[in-house]
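Retro notes
What went well: the complex prediction finally ran end to end.
Inputs used:
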Amino acid sequence: MNLNDPAIETPCLVVDRARVLRNIARLREKVGGADVVLRPHLKTVKSIDAARLVMTSPQGPAAISTLKEAEEFGRHGVTDLLYAVGIAPQKLDRVVRISQSGVDLAIVTDNIEAAKAIVATATSYEQLIPTLIEIDVDGHRSGIKVGDDMSLVAVASILHEAGCLRGVMTHAGGSYGLTEQAALEAAADNERTGIVQAAELLRTNNLPCDVVSIGSTPTVFSSRDLSGITEIRAGVFQFFDLYQAGVGVCAVKDIALSVLTTVIGHQRERQWTIIDSGWMALSSDRGTASQPVDQYYGLVCDVRGEPIGDLVVLKVNQEHGVVAVRPGSGSAPMELPVGTRLRVLPNHACATAAQHNKYEIVEACMEVTETWPRFGGW
Amino acid sequence: MNLNDPAIETPCLVVDRARVLRNIARLREKVGGADVVLRPHLKTVKSIDAARLVMTSPQGPAAISTLKEAEEFGRHGVTDLLYAVGIAPQKLDRVVRISQSGVDLAIVTDNIEAAKAIVATATSYEQLIPTLIEIDVDGHRSGIKVGDDMSLVAVASILHEAGCLRGVMTHAGGSYGLTEQAALEAAADNERTGIVQAAELLRTNNLPCDVVSIGSTPTVFSSRDLSGITEIRAGVFQFFDLYQAGVGVCAVKDIALSVLTTVIGHQRERQWTIIDSGWMALSSDRGTASQPVDQYYGLVCDVRGEPIGDLVVLKVNQEHGVVAVRPGSGSAPMELPVGTRLRVLPNHACATAAQHNKYEIVEACMEVTETWPRFGGW
């Protein structure tokens, strides 16, 4: 069955298996020489089939973004997991339940209140809760700032009391805003230096720090030195997307994820083609709006996955998309008859994948060979 | 059980039942005097429980945005449905299967190619496929332009050959960009005038036009005259959202949908509070960015649903949100301890609800009395 078969309903999510394998091989080659653990982040794929392609063993390791992922991947035998979002105290009972089911589930915090709750829970259940302290290397989001030694030692000391301190982690999310190779390399250096400094502070204070974990797709692909790092996390690289292409970490031809859609009408006066995919199928992510090349709601390809001129999804409603030539590009519009199938490359693979509950896996550009379920929720 | 109970996991979707009932009553009062059918759009709620509150009978009528909705609501006994997105020819076999299961499923098109495919399918299955022709009253999206009489008669004549022509429909989506009452009333007048003109053209040409259907929440609430209209569709009004409040169609206190979230950390130097809800729970919809009051990724309320100062969700990543005072508001920041539960009002109820698979229904502000499943997909 190929992507033009009416039995494949549109919109749906398509994954080019060859591209996924190539993207995974590229990351492994990048970090293969270094003595680090590859802990792929499964928040993008949320599929055990996709996870098994990227993990170095069926048991993991892997990073996750929700406790639902811990339960789902745990159920499928993945037993080495890091829940990489700061813990809310109310979630600790569920963390313990997952740990007791046989998963080595590490969690993350950056503050004293949560550290105290972790210790209290670990003590009350007599269950070790391995915890990484989040470090903020670039002011992007959460974490204890590099150099705030007092806070770091305070949180670490509390966790260590109950044997829960496993190490430190960071996410150099600021790298997503970069596009120059030199700036990306500097961000990778800064990420490594900051987290290693935090790890050394702990060790100097006789606090254990077995794990020193970094991760963001742009910095991982731009790193030149991983000394002092024990593990790297990266997620979106498995599929890549237009945003990462804008950053310069991949090319458009590396993007393995697309949304299959069908033409349902036209507004010929405006040179618009209407498709059956709006924000529900594509997501409302407009990340590329801030990059040199604005891809609007996605870059339009033919059914085999080849970009068509400068066609983009210009506007979206819930289940409608408007395809047109990228404003300012000067390319000629294209007649795409009603019923034509197209594929839209996403701005942000995590966001677009999240709108769907399965992947159609294609080989040789458009032959559907498998369907992988994916899950959502918390 | 109330919203502070740890058994209620965050993030999750909360619906204030009293507000929903009030919003429904308000729409019914608005159109109650007119001799029109209320065909609520179920694309926002995607829940049989929510549908039963708003439909005028358990069998419908209702409008839907996917064939999955037709199947799901059909399975629960809703038998009068309008699939209000232009049909792709490849979907017609599935339309027939749904019709044969006992649902009166009307579809929509605006072009000759699809009309021919509808007639061919209806003939080959000996199954009537009732069809409305979409009219474009404001250049917003799809539809035959008001005044393009040749196209309208051409499409209608093809459909009529096989007895498939049921009438005309439009969606005055341009009204979403308005904020002034006079402009909204003018948009409602324009919607009515345009669709009635299309209906009259058909009748003048001896073509049937039993249904004259309009619908957009802003124009429905701003209409002053419904003569010539047989049915109205509206969807988001059941929940309302910050975007509709920005248009002026509702007040913030009418918004019945929110996302329950938990504080997981702080960046005190920047006066940021970090929550466990990012774009995955809130959606990336930034519709209010173009309105006079930018609500960023949502307006922050306490656990009872009361807005807190000028707190908004300033930034989002996948599972992290940054809560801060709205830039430029001058309000004082607020200390919200780790573990505090908050509720975030959404920019766009349809987009936020789409990120979840259930609703927690609350009465008396925060007592959870029911959980309603919701579905997604196509």
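What we learned: Chain B touches chain A through 66 residues (CB under 8 Å).
What to try next: split runs per interface for comparison.
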